[in-house]
Amino acid sequence: MRASASLILLVFVLAFTACYDSVRVNVDGTGTTAPSVSLAANPTSVTSGGSSMLTWSSTNASSCTASGAWSGAKASSGSQSTGALTASSNYTLTCTGSGGSSGSASTTVTVQGSSAPTVSLAAIPSDVTSGASSSLIWSSANVTSCTASGAWSGAKATAGTQSTGALTGNSTFRLDCTGPSGSASASLTVTVSPPPPPPPPPLPGTDLGNLASSMTPGTWASLTVSNQDSILSDIGVGGSMIGFSNSMPWNPVSKVIEIFGSDHLGATPNLHHVRYLVATNLFTLAQAAPAVPGIGHGYDHNTLNPYTGDFYTRLYGGFTGTISVMKKAFGASSFINIPSVAASEQVAIGATWWSGPFVGAGSQGSFMLFNSGNSFGNSNDGQILAYNPMTNTWFYNQQGKAPNYGSGATYHSVMEYSAIKNVAVYGGGNAAPTRLWRLSSDGSVLAMPNVPTGTTVGIEQGVLVDEPVTGNFLLLSAGELWELNPSGSGAWTQLATPPAGVGIPGSRFVIASSIPEYGVVAFITQPSQTGGTFYLYKRQ
After folding, report:
1. Running DSSP on this structure, what letter comes out for residue 228?
2. Is the same domain home to 296 and 408?
3. 524 forms bridges with which residues in the sheet?
4. Is the dihedral of CA 536, 537, 539, 540 positive or negative?
5. 26 — pLDDT class (breaks 50, 70, 90)
6. Largest CA distance in the chain
7. Would you say residue 434 lies in a domain?
8. CA torsion angle for 360, 361, 366, 369 (degrees, to 10)?
9. Segment 411-445, tens digit of pLDDT
10. How far apart are CA 158 and CA 151, in angstroms?
11. What is the pTM of this model?
12. Alpha-carbon distance 370 to 353, whole Å?
């Protein structure tokens, strides 16, 4: 009996031991339980600049390590903000337990509206003469750093401006920027041209030159030109080719005044090109009618590139949606088209040549227009357009440059440029006969004081022209001569009364031409087929 009890006890102990070993093996085939990891983001989608909260936990883990959009050792459980996000980001957590076992979990936070980086880089101007400089202007989006290479170098702000310094050869500038969503780059080349040769010196011993040198400041003098009546007279109803005109350009290369116009001749194209030659003190027909297609008058449509001697004229046209311009290259016998530009135009607007620095212009300046035809009596009135002859493109097109100019008959406006002060003055015409604005080289605009009481400005109202010594502007109107100093807020001064032979705009056809080499302004009157006069005015 006692032996049987002992046998039963032994069997029980062996069974218990076998059962225990079986339980231990079933829990861990290697003797250790594998770790488990969970990782979640709340929210899983944010807008750019927003953040999400990461929450994680683990079991059977002794250490955890973050990777992807975060890094470093982490507790076996916890929470952490992602911080501000600008791009979608992936987060991974890997945890390790005893015996080398490991487990991991990942989650992604999506940034809605995250954009690829962009970079823009511009040079103003994009072409310069040797020794001159350009301004680099750049901006970017969705980037955190930028680096320059090529003709400049180093880390750059994500937006800014910088001078190139003096350039003596074509130079390429590159900007590479990097952001959370990638990288972007931009590059450009500033073209460097040799400086244009200076114009020839004044011709010695000419009638005009001798008369100008004999004049004292503030005086008028008459010049006799023997063939004026025969050349400037015309076959239309007025008998004069210079009716409905303002100023005509002086050509410093060939030493002539370029004159372009026509009398009223119905629908018959009659525009022709005449020159006054200082060398011979005579007028000459350079190109008979029709020199260009279509009808019209001289208006204030004619100007000249002083660096090359090329002559430009804006063609008559209105309400077509396009402004057309033609050029006669120096030495050429006919006009050719340059690219047209879209605009709500009028028949007669202002034109000039801006020869100095202007925002975006090249080394030879720009052909510039004041388009009053876009005006309806609101803050968007007045359009300035500018053409670069170096690139054969219109590079400037801005409206609102003559706020509240007027409405209705928005034609007969004018525009003149002062090389001395590097500004232009423009306005006048039927809708605004007493108003002028000043345009500066940075594109800013300032209203000038109204013209003096009793005078007006615009085609057949008052002739506006730059004075080549002071850099101010002269206004011939109502038998009076006034000077506008465009500096500061602008100021008018009355000058010496014109002689009786000088035409009064609106009753006797008269044009003006500024001649820097002789320090005078020519006022040429041709009232009909006879009676023409040629006067010089010397301000200083």
Report:
1. H
2. yes
3. 511, 534
4. positive
5. very low
6. 164
7. yes
8. 10
9. 999 999 999 999 999 999 999 999 999 999 999 99
10. 18
11. 0.74
12. 11
What residue numbers bound the domain in which 348 lies? 207-538
The neighbouring-strand residues paired with 57 are 38
Quickly tell me which residue has 């423009």 as its tokens. Answer: 426
User: Both 42 and 180 in a single domain?
Assistant: no
Q: Which class for 438: exposed (0-12), middle (13-18), buried (19 or more C-beta within 10 A)?
A: buried
Given a contact cutoff of 8 angstroms between Cβ atoms, the answer to whether 256 and 278 are in contact is yes
**In this structure, are residues 457 and 451 in contact, taking their beta carbons and an 8 Å threshold?**
yes
The residue ranking higher by pLDDT, 152 or 61, is 152
Which CATH number goes with the domain that contains 185? Answer: 2.60.40.10
Query: How does pLDDT run across 434-491, given as a tens digit for each residue?
Result: 999 999 999 999 999 999 999 999 999 999 999 999 999 999 999 999 999 999 999 9
* Mean pLDDT computed over 493-497: 98
The domain total for the chain is 3
Residues 6 or more apart in contact with residue 449 via CB below 8 angstroms: 489, 490, 491, 492
Report the candidate in 304, 309, 229, 242 with the shortest Cα–Cα distance to residue 271: 242
Q: What is the 3-state secondary structure (H, E, C) of 72-115?
A: EEECCCEEEECCCCCCCEEEEEEEECHHHCEEEEEEEEEEECCC
